[in-house]
Structures are given as structure tokens and as C-alpha cells.
Amino acid sequence: MVVVGAGVAGLTAAYELRKAGRQVVVLEAADRVGGRTATLRRDGFVIDTGAERVSERGYGATWALLSDLGIDRWELPRIGRRVGVWRAGRVRPGLTHPGGLLTGAGLSARARLDLLGVLRGGHDFDRPEAVGTETVAGFATRHHPDLLDYLCRPVAAGLCGWDAARSAAGPFFGLLAAIGPSSVWRTHRDGMDVLARALADRLDVRLSFPVDEVIAGTRSARVFSGQEEVRARSVVLAVPAPVVRTVYANPPGNEIPFLEASTYVPMVAAHLMLHRRPESRVYLVVVPEAASRTLAAIRYDHLKHPNRAPAGRGLVTLVAHPSVAGRLLGASDGEVADVLLTAAEEFAPGLRAATRAAVVHRFRDGMPEATPRAVALRAAFAARAGGVVDYAGDWVGVMPCSEAAVRSGRRVAERLLAVPRKEPV
């Protein structure tokens, strides 16, 4: 068996297949594992390329996998800081925290009541289509304006890279309900790639092995990389849906509509290595569009966990707003850092002067966009029988998070293991 993609979804699928005694190889185009959950270590800084957090609730598949790998809970300490939203010239802490319903967290009293009603709406992580296919913006506009302007829109942009007018409400609120309040969020002590590296250590992973084409046959599939060909009884494409459409030459006709609807948004961020360690009441600030359409979020990584930066130094990540992320994909590292730093000065004065170096990350296929059409097609896609070529990734469940990636990896492994073995032809 071949798994294409060494992100969390692909590695989970390969791990479950290997545990069941199947021979499996993982092919990864990059020179490291983890995909969007990779970690860069430079000059004592531990730079997470994404904004991973592991909730104490709603992440059952992740915790089960961590336990199976022997990764103890103490290795994932609580973040211990809250999330805030910028409003009227200052950070209002308490967003996504129970205390925020009392203190305000940037929301009016009426908006907080509306939020309580929304969160009690029975949003289902595994069935995001259950609440319909309305967009986040369309859903929120039925409530107090603060709910859209100072919660839904900035959180969607800062955490998912979403335009609230394009992405569906079901996945958004299903994700918020699953991850729970920020008071129960944890992070990997040694970087967000810990899970991926632990899985890869138990597998045959071939790095710097880009796949150009996959062709499915009746009982086997052919995988091409340059002049090399690999033949396998089954292939799992654990890559973003747009990449699937590029490399998979002959997908079944009934799968194409969902594959085409599963679009992605780009994500661009600048990780600033600072010569001082700034303090903040919150570890993450989301920025509403009323304040900036350049900067979506500021993350104080050294407050997320102290070992993200050497003693006395700081690590801060600036996340580009969805409206500029596409343009910044083609910009130089210096331009990206300059654009985001210029915008950030209003919210974190002195940040530019404190910056000694910057690392820029760009993900063309940053996060599943969870369009209303993808949500509408998800259930039928999930119910299909599968075939010689199958899929894993958070996009399969239309939920942009690592828990969805782990669940999809386990499910595709279960589906493949349920198929009687046949000799490839």
C-alpha cells in the first residue's frame, strides 16, 4: 500500500495499516514530515508553521493516538493564556473563554446572549451539514452585529484563513463546539510536529519524493514520480483536494463534484524572532476587519509555551488577512514581513524595533475552505464505497483541524482493511 502525503492524516492512515500488518510506504514531496503541522527549529527558536492546539475535549481520536504512541498528557501542557479581540483601541480578553460571557470579550450583552444560543444549537463535528449550508456571514447576520464583526469574522480569518462570506457555518460552529473554551487548550511542549515525527519514526517514509501522477486500475494503482513507478494494491491520497485533482488522472465520476468543491484558502504568516520577550494578557489576538484588512491575528508563541524562544527573547507570529494572503504568496520574504509588521504596529507598538529576524511561511493550499457546496456534498462522499484510490485529510470531513485529519486517517485505514486482499494485476 502507498500513502501519498506525510501530514497527520497520511501518517495516521499508514500507522493504522502498519499496525494491522500491512506493508505500507509513505511518499512525501517535502523534506520533512508534518505538512501544515511542521515545526522549524532555528537558533533556539521553535517555530510552529501553523496554529495547532489540542483541546482536552472534542479531540478524542487525537488523544487516543497520542496514548497509543506513548506520548503522555504532561507533554502537552495547557497554554494557560486567553484569546482576545481588538476593539476600540485595545485588546478585549476572554474570547472563546467562559469568563468572556461575563466580561464581554469585545461583545455587547445582547451579542453574548446570542452567542450562548448559537453554541447550544447542537452543532455536530461529524455532520457539519446538519445545520444547513449557509455561510458564516449569512448565519451570523441573523443575530446581533457584534457576533459577526467581533467574533465570527475575525476568528474565521485569524484561525482558518476564511472569508466568512464564502465558508459554511456548520463546520465553523462545529469546530468551536468541539474544541471548547480556550481554558482547556493544550500545545505540544516540543513543537507541533511531535505527533507527526512520532508516527514517522514507526513507518517507512520517503521524503523529497514528489508524486506526479496516480492512475487507478481495477485491482491496483500506479504511482509515478519522475521516471520512477510504484505499483500498489491501494493508494491513499493524503494531500489537499486541489493537489488530488492535479495528480489523480482518473478519479471516479461520482467523486469529482466533491473534489472540485473542496477548495482551499492560502495562508501566509511571518514568524518574528525578537531580541526581547514582550508580555501580553493573551497569547492570541484576532483583529477584526474594522481595524485591519491586512493583519488577521497576532500570536505570542513564547506565551503559548515558554520554550518556543530562548530565555529573554520572544517569538511572535503575524497572520495575514484572507484579503491579502493570495497577493503575498508571490511576494518576497522581506516584503511579507514588512507589510505585516507595518500593520501590526498599531496593535503591538515596538514590534518592528524588537525584531531581529523573520521567517515567512506560505501555504498555497493553506486550509480547507469548507464551502457550502462542499458541505452539501460531504455526506454522499463519505458514504461511498471507496476504491483502489482513497483519500485522507481534514478536507474529507470539511473540518479544518488536526482532529479531523486524524479521524480521516483512521477511517480510510478501516475501510481498506475491510476489503479482502487480492493480488494486484
Radius of gyration: 21 Å
- Into how many domains do the coordinates divide? 3
* Name of the CATH first level of the largest domain: Alpha Beta
CATH-defined superfamily of the largest domain: FAD/NAD(P)-binding domain
Structural class: alpha/beta
Mean pLDDT: 92
Record field, number of beta strands: 19
Low-confidence segments, given as residue ranges, are none
* CATH arch. level architecture of the largest domain: 3-Layer(bba) Sandwich
As an assembly, this protein is single chain
Largest sheet: 7 strands, mixed
Beta-strand content: 15-25%
Q: Give the end-to-end Cα distance, rounded to a whole number of Å.
A: 14 Å
Which descriptor suits the 3D outline?
Answer: globular
The CATH topology of the largest domain is what? FAD/NAD(P)-binding domain
Q: Helical stretch count?
A: 16
- In percent, how helical is the residue content? 25-40%
**Largest sheet strand order:** 7-6-15-16-17-14-18
GO molecular function, one term: oxidoreductase activity
Domain Amine oxidase: 8-417
Pfam family, one: Amino_oxidase
Protein name: Oxygen-dependent protoporphyrinogen oxidase
